[in-house]
């Protein structure tokens, strides 16, 4: 079910009106490489933000919500890249 949500989120991001974004301007092979690298580095970024929250005392709930969004976007991009 979570995979379907990621696919839907990716489809919604690609169907937004207006000028094409960075991902749409890239060649398909470059786009896949960028999306897969985001899928790999998102957990590392989440860990780094978690450590930052612990060290600085920033609200952990706020940082968790940000990292959740980043992870969802990376997963949606990774699923698109695998299609």
Question: What's this model, at a glance?
Answer:
With 83 residues, the chain is mainly alpha-helical.
Structure description:
The protein has 83 residues and is mostly helical. It has one domain (2-14, 25-82). The protein contains four helices and no strands. α1 (2-14) crosses α4 and α3 (28-56) packs antiparallel against α4 (60-82). It is elongated. The chain starts with a helix and ends with a helix.
Provide the descriptors you would attach to this structure in a database record.
83 residues, mainly alpha, 0% strand, elongated, disordered N terminus
Total number of strands: 0
First-last Cα distance = 17 Å
Strand content: under 5%
**Whole-number radius of gyration?**
14 Å
Shape: elongated
Topology record:
Elements: H1 2-14, H2 22-25, H3 28-56, H4 60-82
Helix pairs in contact: 1-4, 3-4
